[in-house]
Amino acid sequence: MRRTIFPSLGALLVSTVILATIYPRRYGENQQSILAERRRESLLSNPTNMAPPSMTTSLCDVFSGRWVFDNTSRPLYKEGQCKHMGTLACGKQGRRDLKFQQWRWQPHGCDLPRFDATALLERLRNKRLMFVGDSLNRGQWASLVCMVESSIPKKRRYLSNRRRGRPTIVFTAHDYNATIEFYWAPLLVESNCDDPVIHRVDNRIVRVQAIEKHAKHWSGVDILVFDSYLWWRQGPKIKVSWGSFESPDRKYEMMKMPRAYKMALNTWSDWMQVHMDRSKTQVFFIGMSSTHERAEDWGGIAGHNCFGETEPITKEGYWGSGSNREMMRVLQKALNKLSKRGLNVQMLNITQLSEYRKDAHVSIYKGQAKNLTQHQIANPATYADCFHWCLPGLPDVWNELLYAYILQN
């Protein structure tokens, strides 16, 4: 699926630089320069023609491609060499088929730049990079820390342990005065799920117009990477509170998920417009992370899911029931709204490339055997996690895409 990801003039000019450095294969360097220059001239001569184009012009859409098995350059790090993966370390939790670690994303028509931890750390020198969102974003944080950690001497790096009730984890590279952080805000706005440890509640409540509680923690950060989708898919409706959780006269409303999601994103975008320093902060939003709970979507056995899957889906353009187009449109409209206000947020459209990876979920390999019932033990597919991703694995590719954009900012 091909999506617009450069919704403004400024972003389009940035895209030209990025695409010129994502090594071309179909076009020579002179041809690439000519095409880029024509693109600039066209935009500058007609600034009213702002219909956001796709990267699939004569250049390259890095989000459209295929998975290539590569056991030479993959994985980017070894599971035993990084301690930050937790329950995402599927090999440690008993998974024996590790082929999922050895797939490389190959865009059509170009190559992604090779990830260089030192180059990224230099770009982060004296800066803060923060992932803001849910456990999927925490997994991407862990992935990036694992990708850079080996290039930093042990005595020159530090991880702040998350204390109970504190929403932030901070990895510090002392020689660069740089931090890679994660902040827990699964719904972006305030909710009764905001405790980073105790958040598994049956009756979720969200305050779609309240964000300052979280936003004050990411104010002033140099690079922000947001994610909020999965928690908005837990049922057709969610309970919305129109007062503080402490107020005795607060009112509630059961609201359809897309509407509540839209209101939350509007609150987020309004805060961003007022408080973000456009000259300092680079902002990204991670697109929908695909789930694989229905094997019949890809021609598998009805009633099965990602459990036991060992190969990616090869049908180009595959789209399963685990990704919601309506929710994706809500996010895109919110980002377009910000763009019109002069704040460019780059969406990393990882949905399609993640759709193919039914083999890359943690499935049953997440160290939870002590909490299982006898029925679940006898039927592993019933407790397979087809939402989260093993490490090393798919989130590493998300970070390679993020790296390409940060490097060419």
Automatic annotation (TrEMBL):
Topology versus the membrane: Single-pass membrane protein
Occurrences of domain Trichome birefringence-like N-terminal (ranges): 60-111
Family annotation (InterPro entries): TBL (IPR029962), TBL_C (IPR026057), TBL_N (IPR025846)
Pfam family, one: PC-Esterase
Any one Gene Ontology cellular component term annotated for this protein: membrane
Keywords: Membrane, Signal-anchor, Transmembrane, Transmembrane helix
Domain spans labelled Trichome birefringence-like C-terminal: 112-404
Keyword Transmembrane: yes
Keyword Transmembrane found: yes
Annotated compartments: Membrane
Protein family according to the UniProt entry: Belongs to the PC-esterase family. TBL subfamily.
PANTHER family attached to this UniProt entry: PROTEIN TRICHOME BIREFRINGENCE-LIKE 34, PROTEIN TRICHOME BIREFRINGENCE-LIKE 9-RELATED
UniProt name for this protein: Trichome birefringence-like N-terminal domain-containing protein
Natural source organism: Eucalyptus globulus (Tasmanian blue gum)
